[in-house]
TrEMBL record:
Phylogenetic placement of the source organism: Bacteria, Pseudomonadati, Pseudomonadota, Gammaproteobacteria, Alteromonadales
Pfam families noted in UniProt: Methyltransf_25, Zn_ribbon_RlmA
Keywords: Metal-binding, Methyltransferase, S-adenosyl-L-methionine, Transferase, Zinc
GO function terms (MF aspect): metal ion binding; methyltransferase activity
Record's protein name: 23S rRNA m(1)G-745 methyltransferase
Residue span, 23S rRNA (guanine(745)-N(1))-methyltransferase N-terminal domain: 3-45
Binding site residues for S-adenosyl-L-methionine: Y67, E95, G96, H181
Superkingdom: Bacteria
Binding site for Zn(2+): C5, C8, C21, H25
Family annotation (SUPFAM superfamilies): S-adenosyl-L-methionine-dependent methyltransferases
Methyltransferase domain span: 88-170
GO terms for biological process, alphabetical: methylation
């Protein structure tokens, strides 16, 4: 997988331990194997994306297998597309849990991308057989028509970028929150909790091929795994200290509801 320069959009070429373009913009390959292609002027904070604490919590929780049914379903859908050694992009790959399992299932060439340098550093170190970069999903450092399959789990992304980098006839797998996702947590936080609205199923330049909801009841044991789960949810900062302590000591029981959509790029 090659890159485009995030500054001038020319092709980047790997020279020893640097990706460089003809305009002499160069980006070092870190010792873990990833490259940072997020220009300073495109950061929305000093350290965008998940911080060390959030990433560690997510890593511990995912490695315990609590979200494996989602990973398995994604992989099954990808395999049924019968793509021959596809070029795959995992948008918002985090620490690489879904990336690594998807690559194994499809035997594809997988590129992981996330705005969090902390997460990408861990992913590259943990899964050296995959390729990772730090970049923004609103200005991706890839040439047009680069990917056969793109995966996005909860990450925000620019639809125009999806159209640009997906090959004609290629696929886009999107995972968002279903109506009941984490509803029990909302009941603790809000006086009048609301369900997540479902998306319309429309994406310009793509044809919707499949929609489904994947649901099950999560039950975490008391202690560290419950604490890790709470830290990786979007509600982590809304709980009071007492609520966090009670949920950590008792374990968490809540609904998981994922809305999965498969789109195909129009030729």
């Amino acid at each position: 997988m090659s890159y485009e320069c995030p500054i001038c959009r020319e092709a980047l070429v790997l020279e020893q331990r640097q990706w460089c373009c003809q305009q002499h913009h160069c980006f070092d390959v870190a010792k873990e194997g990833y490259v940072n292609l997020l220009p300073v002027n495109k950061k929305n904070s000093l350290t965008p994306g998940d911080n060390q604490q959030m990433m560690a919590a997510r890593r511990l929780f995912l490695q315990a297998g609590f979200y494996q049914p989602l990973s398995d379903r994604i992989n099954t859908l990808a395999v049924t597309l019968h793509l021959d050694k596809p070029d795959i992009l995992d948008i918002g790959c985090g620490e690489g849990y879904y990336s690594q399992r998807l690559q194994q299932a499809t035997d594809g060439k997988l590129q992981g991308m996330d705005i969090s340098k902390t997460a990408v550093r861990y992913a590259a170190k943990r899964y050296p057989q995959l390729q990772f970069c730090v970049a923004s999903a609103f200005d991706m450092p890839f040439a047009a028509d680069s990917f056969d399959l793109m995966l996005k789990i909860f990450a925000p992304v620019a639809e125009s970028e999806l159209r640009r980098i997906c090959r004609p006839g290629g696929y886009y797998l999107s995972v968002t929150a279903g109506p009941k996702h984490h509803y029990a947590l909302k009941q603790i936080i809000y006086a009048e909790p609301r369900e997540h609205p479902l998306q319309s199923g429309q994406l310009e330049g793509f044809i919707l091929q499949h929609q489904e909801r994947l649901q099950w009841q999560l039950q975490t044991p008391p202690g560290e795994l419950s604490s890790s789960f709470l830290q990786m949810t979007p509600y982590a900062w809304k709980f009071s200290n007492e609520q966090k302590q009670n949920l950590t000591q008792q374990g968490v029981s809540c609904e998981l509801d994922f809305f999965i959509e498969l789109f195909q790029r129009q030729a």
